[in-house]
């Protein structure tokens, strides 16, 4: 450990991998960081190991940590979401004074951040709940940082956050103020939901090539490496190409020795549940969550594979052309994924009174994070051009790409059905596209059914919106309506 300043610029609680790497990142940018871990041994190990040449101040109690930070004090927590965050807030609070800042850099659920922001503001403490994406590598070299909470805290942490964040190719920091109370953690939650969708889409593309076309792993590696040079250029495509090339000790592809049951930490589920509450159809994210849930039924699937018949058809088309079809289907589906994510953020901003810069959100995701991709620059341009844009698919650039890709998109999903290969995320993205572009849907029948059995009323196409009607369909139900219609 090098000689530190008399006082630290910021304090950090929680020296797991993310916390340690973030501390070293801050030190690289000229900041002195006071560090504390619940287990004293961890603090000592860090101070004598990875942090030995960094400008850190080890602290072995919460009072010592707070005392070593310059005023206004900034205390950042990199700990497990939930009760652990509340417990550390309670420990730190008695040692702070009005105007000090507490920062939660974990994956907290946004309602908790809303609650904490208000409760701490009442005590004069400024609270920030910030999403941080990029994993260990991002934390060390520059993550995407999505801060929200008490706006008075932002000027106090802005320079530190923007200094340590990832930068776009133009040098812009992948960090800016998102909005009040839970906005930062909300945007991170949606980021993670889009991540679920992206990962599922890429996995389906891999499976179509592997099972549908019988491609070898080195072939698929070459295909994804090529894809990563164009419109699909992204972190997840890059790492998937790496995974396909990785060999086990016996020279066989390691990925095929990994059990096909996917885990999840809950942020995708949070996104889906909030979307249901909001009435926003983020179908791709929800389908990606359910795909993981289905994968977990491994024993049942093995048993079902011996009982339930599927098609015996084999692919007999142009292999090279179909690989290009898969690429275009993947690109179109990714656009739907981001469109749905931004639809949800826009609705949440309306619901919770947040003023969110949507182009700024896209910019924050351009570097450092898991979903970083080349077309986030196009998303930023779309919102910069029209900040009232309510669906990305309506932007000229994206509507043009979707029009160009839709023939391939349809071919891929039809071929997958013909071959019996499940592609739930690719399929639901096309279903959403077709539903969204349809002036008329089958919901008139659905609403007639609701009125028939529950007198839920309906609106008519030949009457002004807002007028509700009920029909006595059987002649015995009477004319009384339930009055619960909600469109």
User: Can you summarize the main beta sheet?
Assistant: 8 strands, mixed
Question: Could you give the count of β-strands?
Answer: 8
Strand content: 5-15%
Low-confidence stretches: none
Give the class from helix and strand content and strand pairing: alpha/beta
Distance between the amino and carboxyl termini: 63 Å
Helix content: 40-55%
Let me know the average pLDDT: 94
Plain-language structure description:
The chain has 487 residues and is α/β, with parallel strands linked by helices. Helices cover 52% and strands 7% of the residues. It is built from 19 helices and 8 strands. The protein has an 8-stranded mixed β-sheet with strand order 3-2-1-4-5-6-7-8, sandwiched between helices. The chain is globular, with a radius of gyration of 26 Å. It starts with 9 loop residues before the first strand and ends in a 33-residue tail after the last helix.
List keywords for this structure.
487 residues, 8-stranded mixed sheet, 19 helices, 52% helix, globular
Please sum up the structure shown.
By secondary structure, the chain is an alpha/beta fold. The protein has helices at 17-28, 40-48, 62-67, 83-92, 110-121, 135-141, 154-164, 183-212, 217-227, 235-245, 267-278, 283-295, 298-305, 319-352, 358-364, 376-385, 396-419, 424-436, 443-454, and strands at residues 10-13, 33-36, 56-58, 74-77, 101-104, 126-133, 144-149, 179-180.
Write the layout of secondary structure elements.
Elements: E1 10-13, H1 17-28, E2 33-36, H2 40-48, E3 56-58, H3 62-67, E4 74-77, H4 83-92, E5 101-104, H5 110-121, E6 126-133, H6 135-141, E7 144-149, H7 154-164, E8 179-180, H8 183-212, H9 217-227, H10 235-245, H11 267-278, H12 283-295, H13 298-305, H14 319-352, H15 358-364, H16 376-385, H17 396-419, H18 424-436, H19 443-454
Parallel strand pairs: 1-2, 1-4, 2-3, 4-5, 5-6, 7-8
Antiparallel strand pairs: 6-7
């Amino acid at each position: 450990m090098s000689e530190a300043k008399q006082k630290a610029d910021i304090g950090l609680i929680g020296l797991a991998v993310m916390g340690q790497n973030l501390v070293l990142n801050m030190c690289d940018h000229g900041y002195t960081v006071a560090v504390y871990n619940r287990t004293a041994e961890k603090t000592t190990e860090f101070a004598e190991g990875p942090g030995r040449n960094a400008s850190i101040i080890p602290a072995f109690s919460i009072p010592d940590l707070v005392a070593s930070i310059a005023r206004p004090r900034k205390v950042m927590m990199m700990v497990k979401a939930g009760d652990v965050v509340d417990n550390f807030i309670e420990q730190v609070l008695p040692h702070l004074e009005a105007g000090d800042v507490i920062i939660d850099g974990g994956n907290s659920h946004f309602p908790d951040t809303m609650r904490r922001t208000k409760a701490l503001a009442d005590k004069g403490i400024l609270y920030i709940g910030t999403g941080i994406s990029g994993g260990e590598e991002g934390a060390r070299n520059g993550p995407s940082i999505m801060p929200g909470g008490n706006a008075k805290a932002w000027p106090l942490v802005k320079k530190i956050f923007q200094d340590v964040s990832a930068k776009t190719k133009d040098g812009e920091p992948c960090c800016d103020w998102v909005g009040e109370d839970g906005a930062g953690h909300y945007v991170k939650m949606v980021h993670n939901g889009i991540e679920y969708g992206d990962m599922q889409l890429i996995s389906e593309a891999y499976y179509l090539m592997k099972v549908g076309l019988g491609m070898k792993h080195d072939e698929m590696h070459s295909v994804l490496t090529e894809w990563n040079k164009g419109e699909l250029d992204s972190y997840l495509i890059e790492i998937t190409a790496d995974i396909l090339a990785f060999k086990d000790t016996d020279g066989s592809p390691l990925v095929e020795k990994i059990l096909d049951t996917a885990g999840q930490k809950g942020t995708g589920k949070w996104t889906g549940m909030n979307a249901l509450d909001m009435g926003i159809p983020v179908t791709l994210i929800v389908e990606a969550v359910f795909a993981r849930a289905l994968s977990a039924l491994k024993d049942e699937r093995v048993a079902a594979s011996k009982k339930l018949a599927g098609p015996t058809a084999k692919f007999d088309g142009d292999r090279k052309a179909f690989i290009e079809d898969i690429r275009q289907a993947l690109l179109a589906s990714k656009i739907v994924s981001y469109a749905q994510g931004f639809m949800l953020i826009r609705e949440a901003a309306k619901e919770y009174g947040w003023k969110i810069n949507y182009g700024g959100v896209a910019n924050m995701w351009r570097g450092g994070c898991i979903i970083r991709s080349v077309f986030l620059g196009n998303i930023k341009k779309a919102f910069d051009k029209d900040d009232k844009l309510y669906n990305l698919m309506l932007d000229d650039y994206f509507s043009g790409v979707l029009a160009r890709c839709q023939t391939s998109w349809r071919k891929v999903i039809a071929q997958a059905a013909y071959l019996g290969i499940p592609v739930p995320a690719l399929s639901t993205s096309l279903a959403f596209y077709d539903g969204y572009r349809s002036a008329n849907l089958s919901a008139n029948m659905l609403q007639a059914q609701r009125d028939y059995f529950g007198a839920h009323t309906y609106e008519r196409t030949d009457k002004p919106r807002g007028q509700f009607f009920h029909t006595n369909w059987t002649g015995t139900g009477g004319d009384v309506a339930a009055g619960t219609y909600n469109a």
